[in-house]
Amino acid sequence: MKQTFKRLEMIARGLVPGKLKSAVRIARSAVITQPLSKEMSAELVDGAEIVASRGVLIERMKKGAIAAELGTYRGDFTRQMLARAEPEKLHVIDVDYTKFDSRLLDDPRVVKHEGLTHQVMATFEDGFFDWVYIDADHSYSGALRDAEASAPKVRPGGYLIFNDFAHIDPYLGRYGVHCAVVDFMEESRWPMRYLAMHPAALYDVALQKPSTGAAGKY
After folding, report:
1. What is the SS3 assignment for 49?
2. How far is 20 from 120, CA to CA, in rounded Å?
3. Nearest to 143 by CA among 188, 178, 173, 177
4. Which of 159, 178, 188, 198 is buried deepest, with most CB atoms within 10 A?
5. Cβ(70)–Cβ(95) under 8 Å?
6. 50-66: per-residue pLDDT in tens?
7. 87 burial type by CB count under 10 A (0-12 exposed, 13-18 middle, 19+ buried)
8. Pairing of strands 89-94, 110-114
9. Can you list the domains of the chain with their CATH numbers?
């Protein structure tokens, strides 16, 4: 039921004219205050590397990895991942594939999963992935839910990568990703290893899972 509702919600959003979306966002901005994230612990960001783009960040991942992309939309970044990260397998997970470039499925490295991202991730064994790219529901609860579902599935030393580490985009779209990532870092004690720049300040961040026995959850 949730999967059907989410798919219908995505289709409905795609049918709303851009000008109407902008008008609604402007109206919301007049009455809604964007919550701020907590201040991050210094030790969780010490040594983080700043890179020029998310494409460069993906190139930092080891070749031949087992990876996942949560939220793939048309597959534009899927294509970059295959070319720049050179994974052995890339599991793409989304609730709707109507706009996905089906030609990507001709690549034997790509494995398609249709369903709610956190529910699909729960089906994998713990420690299955070398890295997971999270780019699905950008609300606070959605981003945190995907992080918590994915964290056990990442091997020690592997990465969770988050798209749009921000509060708001240039079109006044509001995100809960920044708050969710900071809260996840503080609770799990996963340090930030990479911060990828973006022209509109919609950054990507990569958190590294500590070695077994380190403090924190997951």
Report:
1. strand
2. 33
3. 177
4. 159
5. no
6. 999 999 999 999 999 99
7. buried
8. parallel
9. 2-208 (3.40.50.150)
Token pair recorded at residue 91? 């599991």
Please tell me the pTM assigned to this model: 0.88
- What are the pLDDT digits (tens) for 153-196? 999 999 999 999 999 988 888 899 999 999 999 999 999 999 99
Beta bridge partners of 67: 90, 131
Residue 91 to residue 97: CA distance in whole angstroms: 14
Contact 178, 37 (CB under 8 A): yes
Contact by Cβ (8 Å): 76, 142: no
For the chain, what is the largest distance between any 2 Cα atoms, rounded to a whole number of angstroms? 51
Arithmetic mean of pLDDT over the chain:
89
> Which region, left, alpha or beta, applies to residue 201 given φ > 0 means left and ψ of -120 to 50 means alpha?
left
3-state secondary structure 161-209: EEEEECCECCCCCECCHHHHHHHHHHHHCCCEEEEECCCCCCEEEEEEC
CA nearest 177: which of 152, 132, 142, 218? 142
